[in-house]
Amino acid sequence: MPTNKELSKIFEQMAEILELQGANPFRVNAHAKVSRVLKDLTFDIATIADDKKKLTALDGIGDGTAKKIMEYVQTGKVSEHQELLSEIPEGLLAVMNIPGLGPKTVKLMWEQAGVTDVASLKKKLDSGELEKLPRMGAKTIVNIKEAMEFADKASERVRLGEAMPIAEQIIERLKSVPGTQQVSYAGSLRRGRETIGDIDILASTTSPKKLSDAFRGMPGVKKVQAAGETKSSIRLDNNMQVDLRVIDDDAFGAALMYFTGSKQHNVALRERAIRKGFRLNEYGLFPDDGDDTPPQKRGIRPKAARTEASIYKALGMHSIPPEMREDRGECDLKTIPELITLDDIKAELHAHTTASDGKMSIVELAEEAKKRGFHTIAVTDHSKASAQANGLDEKRLMKHIEAIREAHEKIKGIAILAGSEVDILADGHLDYDDKTLEQLDIVVASPHTALKQDPKKATERLLKAISHPLVHILGHPTGRIINSREGLHPDIEQLIAAAVEHDTAMEINANYLRLDLRDIHVKAAVDAGAKIAINTDAHAPEHFDFLRYGIMTARRGWLTPGSCINAWPKAKLHAWLTSKR
Ligand code: DGT
Ligand code: CA
Ligand code: CA
Ligand code: ZN
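That is the input. Now the predicted structure with calcium ion docked in place:
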């Protein structure tokens, strides 16, 4: 949805410029909020742009913003945006976008050293001119240089499934250091975002020096970027940045809450704290006594700090799971949904064997699923259009079905279903005819080719598959590969409505390269009452471990086990599968 994306960018830029100009923080935040709301929207804003009531019904959008949206849809521009752009040098936004460079520093460099773009920044850094500025210490200069050095590399965020194992290894190592009390990862990793900017780790210890030394001395550390008493920052060989913060054990919860974020969730919490006569910071929740010196520096005891739960409680709230902390309405909920967990999953409904491009035999696949405590495994190899994946033609499929039925008889303790991951061809037709599909216990229909189709065609194509009476699950609906392939941009709202109507489940493909449906699409599907499947698409035994990333994505979409077919008891799941036969 290009309108949403472009408008979101416009509001983001307005927020940045306003911040640069030192505008009222509320005004800055309001623009940033609109940008996020637009980015998260699952339908095209242009479709309601002529209806002010509908626009202002959206979270964060008031009368003024509605006008700007209408203006954009009618003219392709927002005049406020144009005006703001004209007030700063063109290249300054790029300077602001260098990670680690805040608006205050950029403002200073612009006003006092004439930095107007990245090129002039580089020049003035090299000539030593910047160092002569008042308030520009040697440390700041080093920070700017490093920020520039890594700006290019840091632009690629790392996928969740790549960052998680690294973080867990680091945590294991830190736990083994004598004196360590608590260690946890925080930030976007704990919230389960699909990509991670940097890894944030928090630890409490009785020997801070030992812990920091151990952290900076780990194998795989390419560069130590900061080595303070309470904060260390390193760059790993693979270019990931990891921050360690050593904190007081008594205030672990407060720090964990602060550094888990998101920033926007924190803003919402702080506003709530103020309304209740408190002050919330990374050291705890304190009574607000009107004194500007931070309470922890005056020896004031916090009302809550030890655990996140105690702080939420003191704020009069339920504890909010990290995956929900995105300021998407979670703070105003009367009850928090009982989100799905890894233990709830009892079936894998999308997996491959050596018959197509998998590494496991049918029996090996079934044994692996049994080991994971599942009651059902579906064998869903590729169909003939996926020739590069050795997809099965009808003749091979019939033989395969026979072999699956045999394995099902032979292996006790798990139901082995005969299925297929049938290709959805570019025009929406399926790669097998109905007579073939009827013989299968389960059909996952997925797009694999023509993934650059225009949105309208993509929508029609996927709608056809969803409404097909023999299809159970729409597999990885957009076909995207994170950081590498955009995939389709169908009208997700329409797909979800059709999925509800035709009782077809939408898949969250748990492979961390895909995570498709993505979080906001899951939330839209959950809101609409659609059924969700969480599948690993396993091609090898270790791929079953991807499930956790699918679960985090599901939780980011507020999914409960009742709506997830993989969490259903065996009888219920099988009855539903049979209802489509
Ligand atoms: P990332 O690393 O880009 O994937 O995203 P995060 O969410 O991990 O962000 P990061 O690493 O910059 O900071 C970690 C958390 O620390 C963030 O989620 C919330 C908190 N935090 C950082 N900077 C600020 C800030 O300026 N204000 C507030 N309220 N919280 C902040
Ligand atoms: Ca982070
Ligand atoms: Ca960080
Ligand atoms: Zn597959």
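The domain at 158-246 is CATH 3.30.460.10 (Beta Polymerase; domain 2).
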